[in-house]
Amino acid sequence: MSSLSAISEELGELDGQISDIFRALSNGFQKLEKIKDSNRQSRQLEELTDRMRECKRLIKEFDREVKNLESRNDPNANKMTSERKQSMIKELNSYVALKKQYAANLDNKRVDLFEAPNEGVGEENVLLASTMTNEQLVDRGNRMMDETDQAIDRGKKIVHETIDTGRETAAALQSQTEQMSRIVNELDSIQFSLKKASKLVKEIGRQVATDKCIMALLFLIVLGVIAIIIVKIVNPNNKDIRDIPGLAPPAQSRRLLSYPN
Fold first, then answer.
1. Tens-digit pLDDT profile for residues 38-82
2. Is the residue at 162 inside a domain?
3. Is 205 domain-assigned?
4. Domain-embedded: residue 178
5. Total domain count for the chain?
6. 102 in a structural domain
7. CATH number, domain with residue 43
8. How many CB atoms sit inside 10 A of residue 95's CB?
9. What range defines the domain where residue 114 resides?
């Protein structure tokens, strides 16, 4: 690590950070072997995956810095930095394979951060990595990192789509709530109008009933008058019935008495 610091302070710092993560990964997997509870194992694997993600990011920064300094360094320095980068990728792949093995034992269905399509898991990847050339290891590591970035982008897209769907659902629910509130207000208004109309109908009914009583009374009076008229016509000398003006028989002419002279 001191030789890398002599080439570039940033390379030395990145190398130190990556070495610290490798030590943490080693201790984390040793701790994982002692954990019996599957839930705790799953949480420990998630923490180790986060550390491997950070390590992947630092290796990419290390690779960019190596490429930037490649034209200025001598061949020996370039060889040393290239070998160090390949060693980092190989060591990271070994932890990735170990993580896959534990995940398979736990029947973990989540998409693995460094998993490539149609690849095996466990010790098979470690053996495969040991037979690769340095250039193949670099290409494989870069490809796995790109696939990891794509998986993260897909996850972010799903999260954004879920958030948008939640917002649309909330807006639809708010609109439906406002619509229901308007319907309730309209129902209250209709109920008030029905009560008012019912009261008006009752008042009209009472008024009609009163008018009918008055008409019935007038009808009885008219019948009485007609009856009296008929009786007077049939029996004009009936003294029990009072005369009706205009229908009384003509008064007899009175004769004046003449006295003889």
1. 888 888 889 999 999 999 999 999 899 888 888 887 888 888 888
2. no
3. no
4. no
5. 1
6. yes
7. 1.20.58
8. 22
9. 2-131
